[in-house]
Amino acid sequence: MSDLQYPLSSGSFFFSRRKRIRIRCKERRPAVPLFMCAVAVLTLLSFWYLDIDWIRLLSRTPDIGLIFWKLGHLSTNELSIVLASLLQTIAIAVLALLYSMLLGICFGMLAARNVLRLPVLSVLTQAFFSFLRAVPTPVWVLLMLVCFGMGPEAGVAGLCVHTTAFFTKAFAQSFESIPEETLEALEAAGASRVSVFFNAVLPASFSQLVAWCGMRLEVNFSECAILGMVGAGGVGYVIATSMQGYAYGTAGVAILLVFLTAYACERLFVMIKRLFRA
Q: Do 90 and 165 have their domain in common?
């Protein structure tokens, strides 16, 4: 039996006697080799610019395993402090999420081109929040630390700035995904643009908003664990002080609880999304 051959735009594929699909490409585009060469060149330039001491790096590599071995010896001596700081981290992440979600809906309505239909306002809103997103979250938290001092207030405020900027873009994209014909039909029936937004656009994009909130909660929780190391409160501060004080067992417990909490948040929002799909 002869092989069955089918043409492709840049080659052909055929079924062999062993019932396996083989692909033959007649045209080879140079994009992939050029990309790989560029990556290799940038990697070498980065190594040269950073002036990495490879001998010292390789000599200290076994210490990584030693640190993880010490972290694995979990200690519950300071468990109450770790749990209190973990709850503080969760509270910071949730508060920043709730405040930013409400602000993101308001500003997302201004940024979406199909809601108020004011192109200039939409462009200005997107440009402003693009600037806020360009500044990393730790920078905003450090600025808030100067304003409010050390504590969770600075963490909530700094996290809100970047999260609101993220939600503004994400929610605006969700609002713009609503079919234009639906909005035009409601406006033709006499509904105002604000009424169309709250009665059509917002309910239709609600499942997307929940998905964005679930993803951002995971990000906020991870960032809170890091921001605590710079004085914003939470479990990050406990991890930093424990590592500096060589209390690796306490730090290991805190890191393990951070991992379990992040995993629980992920599974929770997966269940919520399934409920919306049902």
A: yes
Structure tokens at 198: 């709250």
136: Cβ–Cβ under 8 A, 6 or more apart, which residues?
162
Q: Which domain holds residue 30?
A: 4-52
8 A C-beta contact, residue 89 and residue 213: no
In a domain, 204, yes or no: yes
Interval 125-181: pLDDT, tens: 999 999 999 888 888 888 888 888 777 888 888 899 999 999 999 999 999 988 888
71 within a domain of the structure (yes/no): no
Dist. CA 237–CA 81, nearest whole Å: 11
Write down how long the chain is: 278
| Helix, strand, coil abundance in the chain, percent, nearest 5 | 75, 5, 20
Instruction: Give the domain CATH number at 186.
Output: 1.10.3720.10
Give me the pLDDT at residue 6, please.
47
Q: What is the pTM of this model?
A: 0.74
Q: Are 107 and 168 in contact (CB under 8 A)?
A: yes
d(CA 210, CA 28): 43
- Domain tally, the chain: 2
